[in-house]
Design a protein that fits this description.
eight-stranded mixed beta sheet, six-stranded mixed beta sheet, about 30% helix, alpha+beta
Length: about 675
């Protein structure tokens, strides 16, 4: 048995794989300790399976875990008191940063604060040159003095990022030895080990973020293992990473930056699976939870990566500088709060009601209307069937809040106000999708939409219509798409070496030595994965550019190509083709400058799960009718089908809804839904 847990801002999702049979369970996320919510979700599963929490955990071989704890700590500023150690003369790396303007005519934007303030930045005497030579010797006495100042200041973690440590780490390793001797027990991160990239700001920013998360995430991972073990867990725990893979929780505690976008990174993994089932190689994968709306892509069957992940607003937030699945998140989910400002304009989000108190209809003390409240008022969500009837919804309270805060200030009727909330949330979601499609030269009309997340079904058809997409896939595990994605993922580890090499002066022996080094590191990773690891593979790539270009692009290579007599010609041809694909032009007469060499090691520790829930017995009548309101039709009596009772391949014409214990799918007028025999829905427009 395997468990996959995704701790979201509102709900904690649990997918159980018991001998190849999947089941889905939910519980409210708990604060401040999410482990309580995890155990609550296991308790829900135990009740429905007729067993105990201890029995489930004792039978579990593998547990996959993703959490928003790291990203929440950064966003809320609740990270550890962290010091930054940099080369003497370079204390302003995080202040100068990488910049740009989203609005070139707005001069009133304040300059952003550095991730670690200058008051906690310490300079390290000594300097390494770009070729690895020591230009200025290391000064141990001054570093010890700086460490004593850190102790006095109550520093809880240390980030060390020295100039050109990526070609000669001797000074960073010397700092590490002194930290071990004079600040034992205080965690630190060395830049050359964490993120050996050539750009100083990206390397330093990643190091600072990682170090600041270590005390928090190490404590959380320890508590997670301790409490789950005490509750009966016998198997291994793996953490989901922002790179769309898995690592042992002990590894994540040593590199917590990997957890920043761990939950959202799994949605495209699952989305790719469902798109491929229906013959699509291009997909727009959405994950609409209670707090955020996450959007990602699958292009030619590949999940794009990026190193340009900003925590907060672009240019004004903090750049992780770390490779991760390209996911865009906005504050628009089922719990997003609707309000009217002093100028009479409607807003939806980014503020969320979360799980506590939650939307008004939850009856937990929430007073501000949300997207979920609007869906309840419009008749889309059955108040008596939320979470399969385990949680009743307060319809009258939702109506009163929406009338008071939206309808009356706008001078609209109640249903019209609710439609306005849904329309505005839809527009924000469409804008997020356009950011990663249209604005990057990708035509969304050629892609299928994968609607994931508990709130995805409310307006997935409206989004598809706005984007002119003709097909939407709603997986039966859509309410826990990220948790299901973890069941399909692999153990992964990224390795890189910075070594400048122009193709006009290509050194075949040096290239072979670099690739051999990367391969050896990958083999060490495989050995650490344990004897059960299988399906091992190593993916090699170079990061290169045309001369005088500022940014590199990644180009996959193979060991066979690099060992061939015409290796240089193959590499250059592959670079030109990749550049053409990304930017629609190429310079066939130019050389290529290789900056970095990368290897991604992947292996499995269990067979990939089937991504569909086991067939379930119906909950009663297959269809009932209730009053619903749509923009095209107004208020009508429309059918509400139970997902479990819906016969395969029988078309459901809109207007209608299809509801399960965990989600409601609105089939708007003009759309047709069909349930596939495997269990997922196909909606065509």
């Amino acid at each position: 048995m395997r468990l996959s847990i995704d701790v979201g801002g509102t709900f904690t999702d649990l997918v159980v794989d018991r001998n190849g049979v999947l089941s889905l369970h939910k519980a409210s996320t708990t604060y401040p300790d999410p482990v309580d919510g995890i155990l609550d979700a296991v308790a829900v599963a135990a009740e429905q399976m007729g067993t105990s929490v201890a029995a489930i955990l004792s039978e579990t071989d593998l547990l996959f875990h993703s959490t928003t704890r790291a990203i929440n700590a950064v966003v809320t500023g609740r990270t550890a008191a962290t010091a930054l150690m940099v080369s003497e003369g370079h204390p302003d790396i995080l202040v100068i940063r990488e910049g740009g303007r989203t609005d070139p005519f707005n001069y009133q934007v304040p300059y952003p604060d550095p991730y670690i303030p200058r008051s906690r930045t310490f300079e390290v005497p000594g300097r390494i040159w770009a070729d690895g030579r020591e230009l200025v010797p290391f000064d141990e006495a001054k570093v010890v003095a700086a460490i004593e100042a850190m102790k006095t200041a109550g520093i809880e973690a240390v980030a060390v990022s020295l100039i050109w440590s990526i070609v000669n780490p001797a000074h960073e390793l010397a700092v590490a030895a002194l930290l071990d001797a004079h600040m034992p027990g205080v965690p630190y991160t060395l830049a050359h080990q964490l993120n050996p990239t050539v750009r100083e700001y990206r390397r330093t920013s990643a190091t600072a973020i990682d170090a600041s998360l270590k005390p928090i995430m190490q404590g959380y991972m320890h508590a997670l293992k301790t409490r789950l073990t005490a509750a009966g867990l016998k198997g291994r725990i793996f953490a989901v990473t922002s790179q769309g893979g898995l690592v042992d929780v002990d590894d994540l505690a040593e590199r917590p930056i990997l957890a920043l976008n761990s939950g959202p990174s799994m949605a495209p993994v699952a989305g790719r699976y469902f798109a491929a089932e229906e013959g699509w190689t291009a997909a727009i994968v959405t994950d609409a939870g209670g707090t955020t709306y996450d959007v990602s892509l699958v292009k030619d069957g590949i999940i794009p990566w990026t190193r340009d992940t900003w925590l907060g607003p672009i240019y004004r937030g903090h750049l992780t500088g770390f490779p991760s699945v390209d996911v865009k998140s906005i504050g628009a989910g089922g719990g997003s709060i609707a309000r009217v400002d002093a100028a009479g304009l409607l807003h939806v989000g980014p503020e969320s009601a979360g799980s506590t108190p939650g939307p008004v209809c939850y009856g937990r003390g929430g007073t501000k209307p949300t997207v979920t409240d609007a869906a309840v008022v419009l008749g889309y969500i059955d108040p008596s069937f939320f979470l399969g009837g385990r949680m009743g919804l307060a319809l009258d309270a939702a109506r009163a809040a929406l009338k008071r805060d939206v309808a009356d200030p706008l001078g609209l009727g109640l249903e019209e106000a609710a439609l306005a909330v849904i329309d505005l949330a839809t527009e924000q979601m469409v804008n997020a999708i356009e950011d990663i499609t249209v604005k990057q030269g990708i035509d969304p009309t050629g892609a299928v939409i994968i609607a994931g997340g508990g709130a995805a079904g409310i307006n997935a058809v409206l989004i598809a219509r706005r984007l002119r997409c003709d097909t939407v896939i709603v997986p039966d595990v859509s309410a826990a798409l990220s948790a299901a994605g973890a069941m399909m993922s692999e153990l992964t580890r990224d390795f890189s070496i910075t070594a400048f090499m122009p193709t006009r002066r290509f050194d075949a022996d040096r290239a072979a030595a670099i690739l051999a080094d990367l391969t050896a590191q990958a083999e060490t990773f495989f050995a650490a994965a344990g004897p059960d690891a299988f399906a091992k593979r190593i993916e090699l790539a170079i990061e290169g550019r045309y001369p005088s270009q500022v940014w590199e692009i990644e180009v996959p290579v193979t060991a066979a190509d690099m060992a061939a007599p015409d290796a240089v010609a193959r590499l250059v041809a592959a670079f030109h083709a990749r550049h053409q694909d990304l930017f629609s032009f190429r310079d066939d007469g130019d050389d290529v400058e290789i900056m970095n060499w990368r290897a991604v090691a992947r292996c499995r520790v269990a067979e990939e799960s089937r991504a569909h829930l086991a067939p379930r017995a119906g909950h009663g009548p297959g269809v009932e009718h209730r009053t619903m309101t749509f923009r095209r039709t107004g208020s009508v009596e429309a059918p509400a089908w139970r997902w479990d009772d819906l016969a395969p391949d029988v078309p459901v014409e809109g207007p209608a809804v299809i509801e399960s214990s965990f989600t409601t799918v609105v089939v708007d007028p003009g759309a047709t839904a069909v349930k596939r025999p495997a269990g997922h829905l196909i909606i065509t427009l």
